[in-house]
Amino acid sequence: MFYIANHRSNVYKFLAISLFNPTEKIFKEKSVILKQAQNSLNELKKTFYFKPIECLDQLLNEKIDDLNLRIEYTKLFITSYPKVPCPPYESVYRTEDRLTMRKNTLDVLRFYNRFKLNLSEKFKEPPDHVAVEVEFMYFLTLMEAEAWKNGSHVEAYKYLEAEDEFMSKHLATWVSDFRQCVEKNGKIIFYKAVACVLERFVNMDLKFIQSTLKKRENFFKPEFYK
After folding, report:
1. Which of 87, 137, 143, 181 lies most in the core, judged by the most C-beta atoms within 10 Å?
2. Which pLDDT score is estimated for 62?
3. What is the pLDDT of residues 183-204, one digit of tens each?
4. Does 2-225 carry CATH code 3.10.290.10?
5. What is the pLDDT of residues 33-84, one digit of tens each?
């Protein structure tokens, strides 16, 4: 289980970095982390729940230009006339008025605070920004992997339960709408492919998490031993 959690963590790390505003440091790291994510996805394919993600090939074959990436990120997610096509915030996709800082946003912040996590003062975005939610999944899976590695199975399952709750209540509820928006409005392949990988991986991972928790529940049922 350590290896599976570790590989899942690698994928979330790549997705989080790809969905933050592309700074020079992030741009330099991206190709290395993409390769790491590819290797992890190849390993995860050996399990029942994770299937090939074809849109990953688009990322591997795409030549990433720093300037074009920044322009595309700005036009898609930050500012554009007459309006921003795809605001990267959960509350926009889950409320009728499509505004930020709604109940969903505060619920997400409570999740972070539960694990004693705070947003950096330099980060001036709402806590339900897609990159932050994905980075939170990176944190949870990383902590889960550490728990498995240390033989702390009870602790590992606590992180799995948190992953299930966060995904079911938040991230998994809106990634499909986000992907559709990016697919419709994106001009270059990179963010279309990232949004596609995000949607596919989140949906597969949630099924894996819930199945793993279900197996644990069955293990403790008396009828399991009949």
Report:
1. 137
2. 78
3. 999 999 999 999 999 999 999 9
4. no
5. 889 999 999 999 999 899 999 999 888 887 778 899 999 999 999 988 788 9
Q: So where are the chain's domains?
A: 2-225
- Asked if the peptide bond before residue 82 counts as cis, ω within 30 degrees of 0, the response is yes
